[in-house]
Design a protein that fits this description.
Among the domains are: about 60 residues, Arc Repressor Mutant, subunit A; about 40 residues, no CATH class. Helix content is about 60%, strand content about 10%. The chain has a 3-stranded antiparallel beta sheet. It is elongated. The C terminus is likely disordered.
């Protein structure tokens, strides 16, 4: 898989808006971000331009405005950023990371059940796609 272009924290904010609601015009992206960040619309347009140049966003014209859509799926960035974090903070070791987060994070009963289900699926040898629910049915947890 090709490495995704690096994006800044500010660019992540822009991408999150687009991953949630694309296609969006620059003013729609700006409106969504202004509520959260207080950024000036010109700042948002600068960030959109950077993301287009990096190949992370695509756009089309609609009259006199640009309409933007992600060119790279969120999951690609999440996967790569997770791997980078795992390597940098936990030396690439998954188990210590999971133990750390399970021990230090308040989890709901539903979240704990989901973690059990995922671990059971891994134990049963299901693929990542199956574990993500993309293929087949979810397996019922056995007691």
């Amino acid at each position: 898989m090709a490495k995704t272009p690096p994006i800044t924290d500010a660019e992540w904010e822009v991408m999150n808006v687009l991953w949630e609601g694309a296609p969006l015009s620059a003013s729609e992206v700006s409106d969504a971000l202004t509520q959260k960040t207080q950024w000036h619309p010109k700042t948002v347009k600068t960030l959109l331009g950077r993301l287009v140049r990096k190949g992370v966003l695509g756009y089309r014209t609609d009259g006199n405005r640009y309409v933007y859509s992600p060119a790279i799926p969120r999951q690609s960035y999440v996967r790569e950023e997770s791997a980078t974090f795992l390597e940098r903070v936990f030396g690439g070791e998954t188990a210590p990371m999971l133990v750390h987060f399970v021990r230090t994070t308040r989890l709901t009963s539903d979240e704990i059940d989901e973690l059990r289900r995922i671990l059971d699926e891994k134990t049963d040898g299901k693929t990542d796609d199956q574990a993500d629910g993309k293929k087949g049915k979810k397996k019922e947890r056995q007691s």
